[in-house]
Amino acid sequence: IWDEQDNVCFQVDREFLTWGKTLRVRDAQGRLCATVHHVPFSIPCSFELETAGGTLELDRHFSLFSRSYSIDSLGWEVEGDFFGVDYAITKGSQTVARMEKAWPAFHDRYRLEIADPADAIAALCTVLAIDCCDEHHQN
Fold this sequence. Notes:
It is built from 1 helix and 10 strands. By secondary structure, the chain is mainly beta.
């Protein structure tokens, strides 16, 4: 994961041999920053996001014409368009972050704009979880 100047900020490794998909987020020096874990058999889709601040739960909500998630413990609502290309993370009337799928891309690439750097890890984990959820529903 790179910043605007193409400097490596984070690395994401997938852990195999676990129930549910598990991703480990490491900083540029290789230190563990967070873990994203799909809760097996959750309907429609839930993830545990483990950060230095504690464990957060990202839940997907049923919606016909958009993609909707929440992290209740942070008061975050995540709304995406029908195609899963553009998302906004809000807390009340404040925008926490915006993300959009970057095109063209051979892999899943997202552009993430975060209002407060203190929210960077939680917002990044949210993007990773949503990408996993989309992949899970496509398979």
